[in-house]
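Title: Prediction job returns without error message
Component: structure pipeline
Severity: low
Priority: P3
Assignee: unassigned

Description:
Job completed but the reporter wants confirmation the result is attached to the right record. Sequence as submitted:
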Amino acid sequence: MPAVRSIYLQLLFVTLAFALMVISSGVFVNNMLVNYLKRDAVNILMQTGIRIIDDLLEPETLMISIARDVRDIIMKGGSAEDVQVYYNEISAELLKKEGGFIFDGLHGYFEVFGNVYIPAPGWTVPDDYNATERPWYKAAVEANGKITITPIYLSLRSGKYQINVACQIFNNSGEALGVVTMNVLLDNITEFIADMHLVEGGYEFLANENFTLVAHNEADFVTKHMNELGPGFREIVNILGQGETFAKVEAYNYQGIPSIFY
């Protein structure tokens, strides 16, 4: 009997040891997969960030030349009509270009001409339009002569999400002449994001600084605040709202599937 009990104890020990080994291996493999996923997620987020920076570099560089040209026209005694002619010429060339950022209009507001708004060619300006209240004007004034990019917002003219590259220009005495700005649509960026995914069945989404979605594979979610989309999104908002630059949250996605959000 003692021999049988000894065998049982040995078998029990072997079974427990095997079970412990399986559990340990499972935990190790799971941790390894989680680390791989996090690494890949960080890489994808970095690639997306680099792509966005690259897409914005061209219009930023172009705005340096445009702002300088408009200032030269004004300083040489040119009129609002002269600036409009210049706008028309530049816009015609930019609308023909292939690749790179998506140009969607050149316009501006000019104190030097008696507070005149010069619209993008072909746009009928609404009667209640106030250029000085638009994001591009406020961003340019705050930047005080430096090239600036606005937060993402919905265009009144196209109805699409865009950013603006803008610059306030001054005369030699430091008096404000006006603000020059260029509309840049986000279609290239949102299409790039739509094609990115971490794993099969995964997807990317893009939100602006206020956590309003501007790109998502579920079109009905665009323009909604992330807080409206469930606890997982709300947790992401809380983490990033505290100044963190990376968040990992386990929650259900909009289809009710357990997911990991990075």
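Comment from assignee: result matches the submitted record. The mean pLDDT is 83.
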